[in-house]
Amino acid sequence: MGNSDAKLLEGLLNAPASGRILSKDMDKYVKDCCNGEKPPCRCVCPLDLDVVMLNTKLQKGNFNSAYTMYRDKVLFPGIVSKICDQPCLNVCVRKDIDDAIDMLKLEKAIVDYTRSTAPVKYRVLKKNKKVAILGAGLCGLSCTVKLASHGYDVTIFEKKDKIGGRLWDLLSPDIFIPEIENQMQFFEYTLKLDTEIENIGELQNHFDAVLIATGKDGASFGLLEGLNRDSLGSAIKGIFLAGFLLGTTPMQSIEQGIRAAQSIESYLQTNRMHVMLGIDLDKTSRLRMDIGKIEPSKGVKAERYSKEEAVYEAKRCLKCDCRDCINACDMIKRYNKMPKRIAGDVRMTLNPVESLQPRVATRMLSSCNNCGLCGTVCPENIDMGDFLLEARRIMHREGSLPPAFHDFWIRDMKFAASEKAYVAKNAPGYQKSEYIFFPGCQLGASEPAYVERPYAYLLKKFPQSGIILSCCGAPAEWAGDEPLTKEITAGIRKQWEDMGKPVAILACPTCEKMFTKYLPQIKKISLYDFIKEHGLPLNHIVSNAAVSIFDPCSSRYDESMQKSVRELVLKAGFAIDELPYREKTAQCCGYGGHIYTANPALAKDIARKRIELGQNPYITYCTNCRDIFADMGKPCRHVLDVLFDINGELRKPPSLTDRRNNRVALKASLLKNIWQEESYEERQKPAILISPELMEKLNKQLIVEDDIRETIEYCESSGNKIFNPAKGYYIGHQRQGVMTYWVIYQVEEGAYRIINAYCHRLTIEGE
């Protein structure tokens, strides 16, 4: 993200507490989005023909609809389809792959196969304005068509005894005369042949506007000097010049006739020259197409296309548009909305009263993984993840972001930083640390050995290595809770200072990303860079199996970490079969942004797509990736499994309850085995008995044993429970934060057996 984008986002964040953001401010962030931009073929077409839409109609064999659209743009399809110089051929993306789309032959096919070439007759309200047009060539006739169709009183003055101008040098009159008569048959205008105008001043006394389109070497009445080449207006009010008189090609003459009509109408409406109402002169295309993935398809070789050949040729059209972000991002693809549309929906969400609409984008902006891939693939570097994260922050600040979307993850983060799991200690016998190991909150939750064995390795290499077991604050950032994010990261910084400002050794790519963003003063190195530099552990796995490295999305900009992981895996003997999305284009596993609560279907779909990227077992270096893939049956190891011979590729992930228990056990193990200290132990409580099937359901609902225990203890102490004598169980509920939990349980000796449990984000009035 550039400095200008950062300042814009900062401005959005510092908006008034109501969250009302001016539309222009929101739109600035996506103003450079190329999606929807005109493709090169349309940009070079003098008549601004929408080639993509035209070919879309032809692809369906809809020649009648294609003809209507074609006629509306070119005015004289029977002429243009025979004399167009095809500038689109030179810019068609396909020309660098196989053959450019032959639009001229397609245009001929449109004229050949339409049901009727007759124009539609409309009732037009007459306007009390008179326009004189000098010249009945392509430019003058085109201007007449446009002005007459809008009800203006048009008179054409032609000094020769025939219409058509240069068309007599290009086509047989048997072709162009019937076409002009056909297309102009329903327009009311006056044609005066053999009439040469010698005094332009006299015309001004009888007409409100004059177009001089007298052709090559025709009379300009000394008005070329001072001509505005955009509006085609002269230095004299009400007089315009256009066409072959200005050295145009036939197609440019038609375009200038149309443009002159627009300028004349603007003048007649505003009484001002050079007012470009409805005129777009931008002829540049910012689209950049990646031709590497385009399948070759040779063009049709025929003098004249049959219907079937025309449809085939039209289907070769790539419909050029920038869709890099939607092709890479599952969230954008799911909602089928491009950045400008997303920004519009977010604007309505942040300004619901102003737009008189509900908050339409709340779930969408909470479905973003915040992985940054869209910004990486975007040719304009537009990162919608940053944009949507700022929107979450604004909504969190004003209290409109549903707390339930992130409630579980915030409570889990706070558990990791609580007395039960938090550790911050220098190595035994040292008051300061040279290094500190910061494994993050999820590594030890998945497998305590992921922390214990690397830390033992570090102590052997550098005995003055401390450790901090906590969370980097990513859940708070993803929740849009900026104060909490700052509180967590400030706590880490304070602890780091107290330990002597050591170098941080990070095992989690997300932690590395958070440290880079919020703790830039802390010098850091990845665990994998450290091991590569100091040597593999002696007990690492040795294998010649083929595997694929799954790069976590948060490792995208840490090239060193990505290379170190690969080198370590190769040194262990594995053969690496790379995935299509990796390194700079690494994709999220579905965990990022904690989208599961807001959009569980999308989170699952993302994970499914990731495991389908490769057939080999995966090795990754993010425990969230590993556990999500393993839960869906994909053979997968964490790289630490390889480096320290911890687990195989088929290990099932722990439940949410076991993850918390693992954190508690990890703290106890480290304190006992390294510092010979005892950790805090809670008093013995009745056991909670949960079947594996129910535990799987509870995991999906983000319910942990602590939630169930707290609800049962409340029900037992308050008596707020109902007994079902037929079933022999109790049912009770309790509100904890933003969630209300229901538990159905039986009381057994020294234990509670859970029959079912569920939760909802609701309150019960009166409680």
Automatic annotation (TrEMBL):
Domain 4Fe-4S ferredoxin-type: 358-387
Superkingdom, taxonomy of origin: Bacteria
Alphabetical keyword list: 4Fe-4S, Iron, Iron-sulfur, Metal-binding, Oxidoreductase
Gene Ontology molecular function terms on file: 4 iron, 4 sulfur cluster binding; dihydropyrimidine dehydrogenase (NAD+) activity; metal ion binding
Lineage: Bacteria, Bacillati, Bacillota, Clostridia, Eubacteriales
The name this protein goes by in its record: NAD-dependent dihydropyrimidine dehydrogenase subunit PreT
Alphabetical list of InterPro entries matching this protein: 4Fe4S_Fe-S-bd, 4Fe4S_Fe_S_CS, Cys_rich_dom, DPD_II, FAD/NAD-bd_sf, HdrC_iron-sulfur_subunit, Helical_ferredxn
EC class name: oxidoreductase
GO cellular component, one term: plasma membrane
Pfam families in the cross-refs: CCG, Fer4_17, Fer4_20, NAD_binding_8
Gene3D superfamilies named in the record: Alpha-helical ferredoxin, FAD/NAD(P)-binding domain
Documented EC number(s): 1.3.1.1
